[in-house]
Amino acid sequence: FLYGVPPTHATPLNSVSRYRMYWEQKVDCSFPTVAGLMSRNRFEDLLRYFHVADNNNLAPDDKFAKVRPLWNMLNARWVKYYPGDKNLSIDESMIPYYGKHGTKQHIHGKPIRFGYKNWSICTRLGYLIYGELYQGASTGNTHPELGVGASVVLDLISKLPQGNYSFYFDNFFTSLPLLDELQKLGHDGTGTIRANRTEKAPLKDPKEMKKTSRGSHQQCTDVLSNITLVRYNDNNIVTVASTQSGSEPIGKVKRYCDKQKKDVDQPRCFINYNKFMGGVDRLDQNVGCYRIGIRLKRWYWQLLMFPINVAMNNAFQLYKISPAAKKSNGTSHDLLSFTRDVVSSYFLMKNSSASKTSSAATPRSSLAVIKRVPDAIRLDGTGHLIDKQNKQTRCGLCHKNTTMKCIKCNVALHSKCSIIFHTK
C-alpha cells in the first residue's frame, strides 16, 4: 500500500481490498514487509490522529484550512527546486472525492469527474510548480475586470521566481485582455480562444472555414497590442491567440485525409501549443498510476494524499535530469522503480524494526547484494554498525563466510569489507 494503487490496466502492486489484510497471516495475503514496518494498531492510531493543522486556530475564511499548512510547505519546496523551464502550462487538475463538500466540482469528460479542483502550473513533463485549491467563484476572482480565468493565471504566475516566461492555457483562461496584461508583465502567452472572445477580429466564420481544405489557416495581428489570432482547420476549427508566435514558419503534421495519411500544414503557434500544453495532463497521468490507495470518509483525506503523490512525481522529474540518471548507463529508474527505491530507503532507515524482522522483511532476491541496498542508505555514512549474528552467512562483498553483519543494511560483512561496501 505504500506504493499506491495503479490504474485498472496495470498489474496491482501490494494492493488489497481492506488495509487490515496487510497484517493477516494467511496464505492469500501475507505482507511481512508491511507488518514488519509497524504494527496494525500503531498504523490505525496514525490514521485516526493524523492532522496538519490546529483545529482550534483555523482561518474562518479558508475552506481548506485543515490542509493549508501542508500545501503551503510543499508549494514553497516545489517552487524552490523546480527545474527552471520557461515554457509552462496552466490548467485544472482534479483530486478524486465522491462525498459531500461545498467545494466539490463536477467536470464532464475528465478522467476524474467528481472531486476537488486544483489550479496547477506545470512544466512540459509534469513537474507541478504551484497548486492552488479552488474554493469557488467568490474567492477566485481577484481581478474582476479580467474575469475568473485570467485571475487564476495571474495569481499562479505571481508565485514564480522573477524572469520571463511563456505560458500556455486552454480556452477557459484565454482572453485578449489577459494576453495584453501578460505582455505588460514581460511574459508571452498562447492559448486556444473561444469564438466569442476574439472581439470581432476579421477572421473567417467557422462555418466557412470548415469548407476549406484540411491544414488551411487564416491569421490576423493587432499592431497595437501585438496579439496574433490564427484560425486553423484541423479535426475541427480551432482558434489560437498568441503573443509569442504566429503561423510562420509553417510545420508539417500527419493526418488522415480521404482515408490516406498525408502531411498537412500546421501553423507554428499550434506546434508550440501542442508541445508545451500537456504538462498538467502528464502530472495527472503520473499521479494516477500509483495513487495512494488508502480510502477514508474524511473530506480532507484526499487533499492530504494528493500532495504526497505530487511530491513523489516531482522528485522523479528532478531525478530524470540529475547527473545520477545520466550516468546510469541505461539502468535509470522509471516512476515505479523510483517510488519503490524511495520506499525501500525509508524502510531501511528504521534500524530497530529492520534488524528485528530481518528474516521476515527481507525476502530472497536474485540481485547482487550491493544492488539490493539503495545507494541513499549504503553510502550515507550514518549508523552502519557491525554486529555479531548467531549463524554464519556469506559476506556481501567477498562472499566468504562470516558471523558479522551491518545492522542497518542487514547485509553480512567482514569488518574490512564493510568499509569498502559503505564507501564505493
Automatic annotation (TrEMBL):
Gene Ontology terms for molecular function: sequence-specific DNA binding
Residue ranges, compositional bias (Basic and acidic residues): 196-211
InterPro entries per the UniProt record, alphabetical: PGBD (IPR029526), PiggyBac_TE-derived (IPR052638)
Annotated ranges, domain PiggyBac transposable element-derived protein: 14-316
Region described as Disordered: spans on this chain: 190-215
Name the UniProt record assigns to this protein: PiggyBac transposable element-derived protein 3-like
